[in-house]
TrEMBL record:
Substrate binds at G104, D105, R106, I107, R126. The gene is proA_6. PANTHER family: 4-HYDROXY-4-METHYL-2-OXOGLUTARATE ALDOLASE 3-RELATED (PTHR33254:SF4). This is Putative 4-hydroxy-4-methyl-2-oxoglutarate aldolase. InterPro entries: RraA/RraA-like, RraA/RraA-like_sf. It comes from Pacificibacter marinus. It holds the Pfam family RraA-like.
């Protein structure tokens, strides 16, 4: 017979990006960050900015603080409020459960009061108008008015798997209207270094398109090479 687990397990933070590292991701599109990670890093496309088409804020970049609640529970997310540092993004896993909301306007309001700049979950949210009033950028799978419980067990600060990505407290979260990208803590400096190259290439291509580019030259070269065959 299994022993009953404690209602909460809290892991003290062991890593956090420097302010310079955090600043390097501000106002950077998620697509650029994913490109700097070889085209990877994004959570499942079901996790989208809440209300991005209705005037709600939909961009945030900051360190993750993780909470694992389990299906239909919110105890760990509530406990995580105590450990939020200014600039954190609260990443709250419910194991992908869609049967009720993960949080609503009160918890997002408290998270913002604690200094959080964003909220990410793999379940639905509720209280749309209240969340809009709070103004905390949030990413979720949709809306569901059903209520969660506060029974536990849950964890704060431990790794969580959310949207197909493993997220550890201290990883960088970069989120916007396109979705949510996770930059593992150990890769932050390497990604920052590659971001400058990505930005240079992206802005140069943007300029070419604005000036009338129709087909990239490398594609034209391929079409004229022996690597393309034509058939009638």
């Amino acid at each position: 017979m299994l022993e009953e687990p404690p209602l909460l397990k809290v892991k003290r933070p062991a890593q956090r990006p420097t302010q310079a590292q955090i600043d390097a991701f501000q106002n950077t599109p998620t697509g650029f960050v994913a490109d700097a990670m070889d085209g990877l890093g994004a959570m499942d496309a079901q996790i989208q900015a809440l209300g991005a088409g209705f005037g709600l804020p939909y961009a945030a970049a900051g360190p993750a603080l993780t909470a694992y609640n389990g299906p239909a529970d919110v105890l760990a997310a509530l406990a995580a409020l105590k450990f939020i540092q200014p600039g954190d993004i609260l990443v709250s896993s419910v194991n992908g459960f869609q049967g009720c909301a993960t949080v609503g306007d009160r918890i997002t309001g408290m998270a913002k009061n604690c200094g959080a700049i964003g909220f990410v979950t793999d379940g639905p949210m509720r209280d749309f108008e209240g969340v809009a009033k709070v103004g905390l950028p949030s990413w979720c799978t949709g809306l569901n008015p059903n209520s969660p419980f506060t029974k536990g067990p849950g964890t704060v600060g431990f790794g969580v798997n959310i949207g197909g990505r493993q997220v550890e407290t201290g990883d960088m979260i970069v989120a916007d209207r396109d979705g949510v990208v996770v930059v593992p803590f150990a890769q932050i400096d390497a990604v920052i270094a590659r971001l400058e190259q990505v930005k240079t290439l992206e802005y140069a291509l943007d300029k070419e398109v604005e000036e009338g580019l129709k087909v990239p030259q490398n594609i034209l070269d391929l079409l004229e090479s022996d690597q393309t065959t034509y058939h009638d």
